[in-house]
């Protein structure tokens, strides 16, 4: 378990939003933090994929080529 110290303005906003969402402030913080951490992980994965692409370690194909491959799979 962890304790979080926040300023009064943030606490007030948190209470208001938790009331709007009909969940406790603790649940709201868990959801917000989880979403934020997932976003950070997604951004890091995107950065890694872009770095591989820029370094020539990943190939790209056009949309037309992709559609041809998908159509071939459907046959």
UniProtKB/TrEMBL annotation:
Short name of any one Pfam family annotated for the protein: DUF6290
Protein name listed in UniProt: DUF6290 family protein
